[in-house]
Structures are given as C-alpha cells and as structure tokens.
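The following block was generated as part of the benchmark described in Methods. Ligand: zinc ion.
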Amino acid sequence: MLNLEQTKELYDLLRGESEVNIKSNKEVEFEINKSKFYTKKSHLPRMTDEQAFLVIYILQEAYRFEEFIPDHYEICSQCGELYDSELEGGTTGDEMYCGDCYTEEENED
Ligand SMILES: [Zn+2]
C-alpha cells in the first residue's frame, strides 16, 4: 500500500511538478520512490490537478481490494494538494479541504 508521501510523489509526477535533472538536450532523469527513471523531456506528463487526481482515484477504486492507494487520500478543493482525510481537513458541502485550507475557511467566517 502506498503511503501519502508516495502517492503525492506520483501525483506530482503526473502534474509535471517532480524535480527533474536535465541530462542532455532531450533526456531527463527523475526519481520516484528512490528509483531513478530516464525519459525524453517531451514524454513527461503535464496533467491538470483534476486529471492527475483522476488517475489516483482510478488506482484507489479499481485496485481497492489490493489496497494499492488508500481511498481516504483526497484532493483539496482549494490548493489542489493531496491530503489524508482521516487525519486532517474537512468538508463544506461538496467541497473537501486539506488541514491548512480547512482552517483558513473557518477563520474567514
Ligand atoms: Zn488545501
């Protein structure tokens, strides 16, 4: 089962937000869960938060019996970051917020 940090690493890769080392004109290197990968720069994904979370959500739901990614990891409606809804954050109507954003919401009232 992936922990939150590992899931965030995957989420960031899908959004094109991982740290990459440029090796040459076209080749880049990046690290996921301490494994190194090499690819063409043009092959790196650049999904929106929503697209990247759809992939995470599919991995949560389609592989729920394998418990690949826990289903309580959610995307924050405000900042777009992943968080563990069992440990932090909260919901307002249909919106789900991470710990940081949920507190800010309350302070605005
Ligand atoms: Zn947030």
